[in-house]
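Exercise: predict the fold of this chain.
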Amino acid sequence: MKSLLRSRLALNLLPTIVGAYLWIVFRTNRWTIDGVANFAPHADGAPAIFSFWHEFLPLMPAVAMLARKMPNYRQTPIYALMSHHRDGRIVGQAVRKFGIRAVRGSTSRGGATSLRQLLRIIKGGAMIGITPDGPRGPRRVAALGVAQLAAISGAPILPFAARTSRRLRTKTWDRMWIPLPFGRGVIVCGAPITVSRSAWRDALPAITVAMDRAADRADLLSNNR
């Protein structure tokens, strides 16, 4: 099976399959956004850094889908930082279906090059999606890159999380949940976090806490709806 998944045929087919499956999931779940007031200014075009734990990666394209339905939405490029690893390439190609462009790199490995790329993109007025504990973990431990990017760019960090009421959990390092169709979905957007250039290292614990709170909130809402 591992050999099959590494084959050229699999690498060509999997992005299409993953993208189609996610489209079905997003269209057949009933979605709500918790924290619309936090998200609205950025749907209107203000640059931001969307920060979410790696376990929420399959659901983050739903943010782009819902943003386009908001009354104040303004066409804004959306980028996501994806690893050079095979999984990152597959996900990067799959999310093109939702208008998300991939940036290759990592907030921990080869971070300086990735940071320069992301700074150019934010200065161009785009939104960025980052998994600070990706691509390989440890789970829910944020690398320094997200705080550095916010401090240098001046763009706020928006802590995100998402859940669907129907889901399956994997045994991967991030304990990722795979969303299932025909349920209810919630996207949680926490309050924006502004990071000072002079004390960006000190901001990392607050960023981690905010992301954990968003995750807990998503769990609570998805279980109670």
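Check your answer against the key: The longest strand covers residues 157-164.
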